[in-house]
Amino acid sequence: MDRYAVIGQPISHSKSPVIHALFAKQTNQSLSYESIEVAPAALAEQLKIFHAEGLRGCNVTLPHKQAVAKLCETVSERAQLAGAVNTLVRTDTGWAGDNTDGEGFVNDLARLGIVVRGRRVLVLGAGGATRGILGPLLGARPSQLVVSNRNPWKPEELAEAFKAHGTIVPRTHLALKGDRYDVIVNATSAGHAGGLPMLPGRLLAEGGDCYDLSYGAANQPFCRWARSQQAARSADGLGMLVEQAASSYERWRGVRPATAPVLAELRGQMGSDGPCEPVGAHQPVYHHHIELPPQD
């Protein structure tokens, strides 16, 4: 039986084993998938052990997504652009690195019917999560793509890094005052602490959509803000989690599973039919396998 795993520290919260077990059942494939906690100091040696043991592939989550890229034989162009690897594919002598986060993001937008092409898009936050989605976002041809952060330095760095792929307008959060956007994406970690960045008044255009890369309890502050902005649609990132996993599965197994039934199953396990549901204090915060670093 082919073996796969997700590695990170911590890792007990990971939904990946459930997701890939559902994918395997759906596609009638026999495989095993486990979560394995790996300390940063042990990463290089552990990858050698995994290869010797015959693992066919791995998903990679915090805090290893940047470090693991340096340990791959090859790294895909989109992983280089994202500055991180979330998918490892076995080669004869090592590992090939890829990043499916951005693909998962735009696939989920398409599933939801959220159109980017020709619209004004704002991304809140300028950390690793933002970097992972910028390439596909630019490829979707928005009329304007603004990246805002508490300070201006990181958005300016991202604008420079991605200039060959399209134009990014850097902003501070406060400099957004008076602007209107058709799509607003929250890529900050503020929701994990129960908050939001300080934002100036109304930012969402009439009929605009909101999307949060976080889900579960971490999505609720942004969800409430989106409601206050009268968003036409407000989505969390659980669909992105499933979509990026499907892209990894396709890399490994050569078949793309249907994501809708798997997403429905996860929603059921979380006790809600969709995002923006009231979340009690007893419910955990669900984290993406993309990096959501603190703002700076």
Structural write-up:
- It is a single chain.
- The chain is 33% helix and 22% strand.
- With 296 residues, the protein is α/β, with parallel strands linked by helices.
- The strands form 3 sheets. The chain has a 6-stranded mixed sheet with strand order 2-1-3-5-6-4. Strands 9-8-7-10-11-13 form a 6-stranded parallel sheet, with helices on both faces. Strands 12-14 form a two-stranded antiparallel sheet.
- β1, α1 (16-27) and β2 form a beta-alpha-beta unit.
- The longest helix is centred in the last third of the chain and has 16 residues, at 238-253.
What are its keywords?
globular; 6-stranded mixed beta sheet; 6-stranded parallel beta sheet; disordered C terminus; 9 helices; 296 residues; alpha/beta
Low confidence ranges: 277-296
Range of strand content: 15-25%
SS-derived structural category:
alpha/beta
Percent of residues in helices = 25-40%
Number of helices: 9
> How are helices and strands ordered from N to C?
EHEHEEHEEHEHEHEEEEHEHHE
Overall body shape: globular
What's the short version?
The chain is of the alpha/beta class and 296 residues long. It has helices at 16-27, 43-53, 77-82, 101-112, 128-139, 153-161, 220-228, 238-253, 260-270; strands at 2-8, 31-37, 57-60, 74-75, 87-90, 95-98, 120-124, 144-149, 169-172, 181-186, 204-212, 215-216, 233-235, 285-286.
